[in-house]
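for the recovery benchmark. tokens below, seq after
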């Protein structure tokens, strides 16, 4: 090998070594520095709470962790664990894509204004329990993107475009564990909705594999407004969610008699939904039980699983008063006339 060839080879090795040094630890540092909160991922198990604030510095929710359980302190009710986990992971994994404005007058375009302003559009999350403070204003999602958002660390002027889309609830109710019941229509055998001092709407299915609920007690000359009009009532308990939750005091001192909707299942489960009309809107409660006729009969031992289900429903929902989405509340308080075609319809 000639001296010239040897020198060229040694030079190439030196260049490669330099490039390796630059591409190795240096690039890892660069990647770490691109994280919005570089230390957060290693501290996720230390998170003990999240304080959520909205425009005007309004307190939306105080989320507190106790072992594996999270509650919304304002309601003393279980929080949405999936929503909390998703937001924490989004923060821990958020990478800086682009530097944006540090001029307060331009924050409005990104939705990252100071939360003290009533006109602010962002949501602030303050993470407690970690060694490294985390206080972030989450602004708008980037236009045309499903995985990028505008944010600003609350103690800094600089705003950023980061990877990740956040689901920071804007109301206390959005941070609750909103799932109430999930009983499919195929389990429902009959439904009765009783209004105080008025007639009772009754629907039933002949068998579990029947498609439509039939309406009992239709007056002569009247008919359902369309085939299967009662089926929506049969599906009311499937994937049922709440908008908000309250203690019993939400009913006031004299709430009066409620509208009561009873759902009887083929397997013996009964779910009773009571609805009170209050000055603040319709409020509801739920109570589960076992069909007493079946509980005393020969198939009583087969009801053990259903009895356990009823106990679990009561342990979770008993004692609470719920606010449901308006369209759901209307369904729980239907009358017979609501399901019939107008009189004289050809």
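predicted aa per position
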């Amino acid at each position: 090998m000639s001296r010239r060839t040897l020198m060229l080879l040694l030079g190439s090795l030196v260049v490669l070594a330099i490039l390796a040094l630059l591409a190795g630890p240096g690039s890892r540092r660069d990647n770490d520095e691109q994280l919005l909160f570089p230390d957060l991922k290693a501290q996720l198990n230390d998170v003990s709470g999240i304080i959520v604030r909205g425009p005007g510095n309004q307190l939306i929710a105080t989320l507190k962790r106790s072992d594996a359980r999270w509650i919304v302190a304002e309601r003393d009710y279980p929080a949405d664990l999936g929503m909390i986990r998703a937001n924490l992971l989004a923060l821990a994994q958020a990478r800086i894509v682009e530097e944006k404005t540090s001029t307060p007058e331009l924050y409005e375009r990104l939705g990252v204004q100071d939360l003290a302003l009533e006109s602010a559009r962002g949501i602030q999350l303050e993470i407690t329990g970690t060694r490294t403070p985390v206080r972030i204003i989450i602004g708008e999602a980037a236009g045309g993107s499903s995985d990028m958002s505008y944010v600003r660390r609350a103690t800094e002027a600089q705003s950023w475009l980061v990877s990740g889309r956040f689901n920071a609830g804007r109301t206390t109710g959005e941070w609750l564990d909103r799932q109430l019941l999930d009983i499919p229509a195929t389990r429902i055998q009959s439904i009765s909705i009783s209004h105080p001092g008025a007639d009772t709407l009754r629907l039933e299915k002949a068998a579990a594999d029947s498609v439509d609920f039939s309406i009992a007690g239709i007056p002569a000359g009247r008919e359902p407004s369309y085939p299967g009009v009662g089926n929506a009532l049969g599906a009311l308990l499937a994937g049922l969610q709440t908008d908000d939750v309250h203690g019993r005091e939400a009913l006031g001192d004299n709430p009066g008699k409620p509208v009561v909707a009873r759902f009887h299942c083929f397997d013996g489960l009964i779910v009773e939904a009571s609805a009170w009309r209050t000055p603040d809107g319709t409020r509801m409660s739920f109570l589960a039980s076992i069909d007493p006729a079946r509980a005393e009969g020969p198939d009583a031992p087969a009801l053990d699983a259903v009895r356990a289900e009823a106990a679990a429903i009561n342990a979770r929902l008993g004692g609470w008063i719920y606010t449901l989405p308006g369209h759901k509340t209307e369904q729980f308080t239907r009358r017979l006339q609501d399901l019939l075609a107008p009189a004289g319809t050809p």
